Amino acid sequence: MAQRFPRDRISYTEGKAPFITDVIEKAKREEQTHVQKNEA
């Protein structure tokens, strides 16, 4: 993203948002799976 928007912080941030959201959701799912395995 930095190469695509080297001087446009707003577009950089907006373009990066979906990636960050996906990473956070994946981490939440992995954490939930880990918690469920430890409770069993």
Please give the structural blueprint.
Blueprint: H1 9-39
Polypeptide structure, described:
The chain is rod-shaped, with a radius of gyration of 16 Å. The chain has one helix spanning 9-39. The chain has one domain. It is mainly α.
Give a count of the beta strands, DSSP E runs of length 2 or more.
0
Q: Rg from C-alpha positions?
A: 16 Å
Structural class: mainly alpha
Principal-axis shape: rod-shaped
Q: What letter string, H or E per element, gives the SSE order?
A: H
With helices defined by DSSP (H or I, 4 residues minimum), what is the helix count? 1
Write down the overall mean pLDDT: 89
Count of domains: 1
In short:
By secondary structure, the chain is an all-alpha fold.
Which descriptors apply to this entry?
40 residues
